[in-house]
Fold this protein.
Amino acid sequence: MRITAFSEKGDGKLVERASWSRKSFLAFNYIVLSVMALACLFPIVQMVAVSFSSGAAASSGRVTIFPIEFTLDAYRYVMRNDAFMRAVWVSVERIMLGCTLQMLMMVLIAYPLSKDVSKFRYRTVYVWFFMITILFSGGLIPTYLTIKATGLLNTVWALIIPSAVPVFSVVLLLNFFRNLPKELSEAAFIDGAGHWKTLWKVYIPLSTPGLATLLLFSLVGHWNSWFDGIIYMNSPERYPLQSYLQTIILMKQDSSALSVMDANILANLSDRTLKSAQIGLGALPILLVYPFLQRFFMKGIVLGSVKE
């Protein structure tokens, strides 16, 4: 509840003052949300602290939010680990190819579907053609058999092509396109522009918030996906990073790889520090990219979710 009063200066302006109950409610919300944020942040901070701690300190459970016996040996080992670096390259390759293909397909599908029925006669049919894939799925086994029959197993394309058309993102983008002023495209057509030129010169520049939001979805989806790598890759050497991390979390580190390390480095390593270092490095790229796209995120979600 807010109390409205005139300004004491006598200028006739209205001043809104929050009541005591309103202030109490806001304070309670801030406290609860702050506690929840800290609860979500604590495991990440502890993981980073463990990765910078000695193996003995991590194994004994003495590490909380600050490193104990600070060392970079875990990161030195990880950067020398050929399996880890191969997995990083597979994920980078997947990001570059997968995100590019997804963004291209989303734009090419959303643009015609954003037109009115008067301009695209069978628009409703095509919209339901794509929407049906959200309601029903072919299942894991038919998808695997399809990928096997097309010769994509154990290739990076097995991780890219099945998710090349994210229908949920297409719906957000076509609604974003529909919210753009129709007069802009009509003016472009009057000036002699065709559909391709109107798309790349008018729609794409005006849709930066929506495209940045969907790019973030695509980056996070490809980078964090691990299950398809384990299913579609026959060789662990072809695993993307998250699939590789999943395997090392479920089993011990390779002792033969540790045996080639220097003795002083081995003394400061443990299973916990190595896993924490690799998980931290795996999450680092998304943490670095997110701040640059975050300013577009809320605007893109809101505009793309409103349907006229």
In short: The longest strand covers residues 2-6. The radius of gyration is 26 Å. The domain at 74-305 is CATH 1.10.3720.10 (MetI-like fold).
